[in-house]
Design a protein that fits this description.
21 helices; binds 5'-O-[(S)-butoxy(hydroxy)phosphoryl]adenosine; 682 residues
Amino acid sequence: MTEKERKEATETSEAQIAVHWQEEGYVPPTPAFIAQANMTDPTIYDRFSLDNFPNCFKEYADLLDWYEYWTEILDTSDAPCFKWFKGGKINASYNCVDRHLAKHANKTAIHFVPELEEEKVDHVTYQELWVRVNEFAALLQDFCGLKAGDRVTLHMPMSTELPVTMLACARLGVIHSQVFGGFSGKAAADRIEDSGSNVLITMDAYYRGGKLLSHKEKADIAVEEAEKMGQKVDKVLIWQRYPGKYSSDVPMVDGRDYFVNDLLKDYYGKRVDPVPMPAEAPLFLMYTSGTTGKPKGCQHGTGGYLAYVAGTSKYVQDIHPEDVYWCMADIGWITGHSYIVYGPLALCASTVVYEGIPNYPDAGRCWRIAQDLGVNIFHTAPTAIRALRKIGPDEPAKYDYHFKHMTTVGEPIEPEVWRWYHEVVGKGEAAIVDTWWQTETGGFLCSTLPALKPMKPGSAGPGMPGIHCVIYDDEGKEVPPGQGIAGNICIQNPWPGMFQTIWGNRERFVNQYFERYCKDPNSKRWQDWPYMTGDAAVMAEDGYVRILGRIDDVINVSGHRLGTKEIESAALVVPEVAEAAVVPVKHDIKGREPDLYVALKPGIESSDELAKKISDTIVREIGPIAKPRKVWIVPDMPKTRSGKIMRRILAAISNGSDVGDTMTLANPEVVEEIKKMEAASK
Ligand code: WT7
């Protein structure tokens, strides 16, 4: 290989990402599903065509109740900070609670399922939710002095109190910033500082894996660390896992820490009118970590966001008021905000909030919850689906539940895993939507509309109505559909659910998401500001999009750019394999080579033969170009608390570099085990 060839091999552009993955065939939804679906009118795609943009989104805005109807649908004068439904006045708490009381006061809004099966499920009606939200809003207003525009940090576990707190903030126009409960006190401190919160709302303890974990100490660390950074927290409000009883032995700090259940007594019976907020007022911040630098506070607005999550919950999640809907995500992630709390409640659904982990106390737990509560819509991530398939491949059949609809979200799903989800979890009856989106986007970008488009395993489906995807190469040239070539997937137009900016950092917002493909940085036209998602994707002839992972995860082997996901998917064709992760390893000649990590299904022994079988399968499915340098059969994958496989750590091990901080992982101990394996193999 000449120097020039070597250079080309390592510096090829996205335009050369060839996709070796076979497209799967269509799977139609059942006639029974179609007969009851919310959206069966195929003209929706025409109504939401680019020609009808942005006025098409009036349909979503009209799912909500407005104090004052908006006068301008999209204000682009501050592009790319777009304002939706300008002139409108609205309140999110009113739309998720108050407006349902006339007809559905006694309907369950939230089924709270404690992790311990011996504890009673709490069924909170809309009436009761209204009472609790009002009383807590009164407390926030009166005791904490909070008002519209203030920020409050929440660091709460899965509980009824979390949506109550969010909705109480929303009632006052207070901007909530919920930090995932599993995160450390330091992570909470960073977010308290960045958002400028002087109130922290937390809980004393929660159950996880059968153990009552004390959570209060994280508040102490958070307050201390935030103060070091110059942000004083005046009040810490502590909800109790068992009201009236303190479940932590960490001391309360006098004059700073308060039990909510004590304070609330002064507010029993109090009502607070929802504050009519400008449509573009921020509703919440959701922090997401970038690859570098400090976490970004994605700022979501009120009217646009709520309209978008209500619309997508109705037409993609197919939520009807009589449905029992269970999204297994944590409310501390955007999925939980949009599709446990705001979307379902705006539509008056019954939404399930489950405290614990899916496999406690055994592999049948999820299916028992579904059976006992009559859940008919189920929403989870491939990582959970793989885990459930691994620990209990035959469990679902033992329970009498029936899903009409299921969602997969968060990462690409391998067709093998998709089929298990469809046949075993969904019992062949459920329509599946594979929803591709991001913290930044507020709601779905790509998905099938479940009664209008057939499913295709492994593909997220076409752009949502009103979301016009385009795939660009490095030079900003469009990669046409159906070429088997991947590139950088962008959205040509803004949409109501899109974040408004990065809190306090407009420059980073513009640079990171728009700069690369912006046609004119001075332009006030939305047409000049395509949104760059940062994902690599391929679009088939039919417009269905297949996500290959983050653009940085693409591996360049001898100038052939391979999506990590297609190699992982090929590995999962081997029945013994439960999970697979591919990482690039530096190679003098080829530039990069893939290393493959796999975890096996329970009871299956690791062997050299099995490793060879996996490697051979990849060569058969994709070609010799994708042959892994090595197949590592590991006890488990290092994962984030949200279940994402940490490929960065595996890549560091494979390349013999420093793995960095592993303490934020759900299972830091496996990193040591994998390092030992690697050392032993030398
Ligand atoms: C990244 C966003 C979406 C809310 C939860 C995660 C990946 C997300 C899919 C999907 C393939 C997906 C993308 C995206 N991703 N959904 N259905 N198929 N990939 O939100 O933490 O902001 O992550 O997750 O790479 O950019 P997030």
